[in-house]
Amino acid sequence: MTHPTPDPIGPGQESVWSYPRPPRVEPVHAEIKVFLGGVCIAWTKNAHRVLETSHPPVYFLPAEDVDASKVSASEHRPSFCEFKGIAHYLDMHVKTHEREVSAPAAAFTYANPTEAFAAIAGHISFYAGAMDACTINGVVVTPQPGGFYSGWITPEIVGPFKGYSGTEGW
After folding, report:
1. Engineering a disulfide at 34: which of 42, 93, 127, 144 sits with its beta carbon 3.0 to 4.6 angstroms away?
2. How far apart are CA 132 and CA 98, in angstroms?
């Protein structure tokens, strides 16, 4: 299958087509917040992002920066990534006096990732589309298209992005 032509890169932008395969992990010290049910359930300035060709970055937050009272193990079947290992899914729950919100299999974690991804062991990654909002330095992210992948798109990330119909072979 032919890869698409990368979108033009403007000042301060990066192309997902310059990301490596196999992917790499790198630290991120931006302020990251995750909201569900009108509640901030995660906040950090000590995340990691995984960069892989054709994908927007996938952010992993330290478990200690996620409100543990909002997290439970999911019945969703674990999945396998050839680079990172076995992912286990997490359900998210928020209960306020006004309402209860649940987001099944809305996050995932690698308890024992491969050696190359040891930095994300026990960290939690959220599907932005399952949350009220995920922000990086106050900018609301757009979920990676398609629902299967968990990348976060911000104005400085350009594609085209894997996830739309017809991109399975990229």
Report:
1. 42
2. 16
Q: Which amino acid is at 107?
A: A
CA 168/CA 147 separation, integer angstroms: 13
- What are the pLDDT digits (tens) for 71-130? 999 999 999 999 999 999 999 999 988 889 999 999 999 999 999 999 999 999 999 999
**130 vs 150: CA distance, rounded Å:** 10
Q: Is residue 131 part of a domain?
A: yes
The DSSP call for residue 170 is -
26 exposed, middle or buried (CB, 10 Å; 0-12, 13-18, 19+)? exposed
Q: Tell me the C-alpha distance between 62 and 28, whole Å.
A: 11
Place of tokens 């999945």: 79
Q: Which of 4-8, 65-69, 117-121, 134-138 has the lowest mean pLDDT?
A: 4-8
Does residue 42 fall inside a structural domain?
Answer: yes
pLDDT class of 68 with cuts at 50, 70, 90: very high
In this structure, are residues 164 and 144 in contact, taking their beta carbons and an 8 Å threshold?
no
160 CB-near residues (< 8 Å, 6+ apart): 4, 6, 7, 54, 167
What is residue 136's DSSP assignment? Answer: E
Number of independent structural domains in the chain: 1
Q: Is residue 75 part of a domain?
A: yes
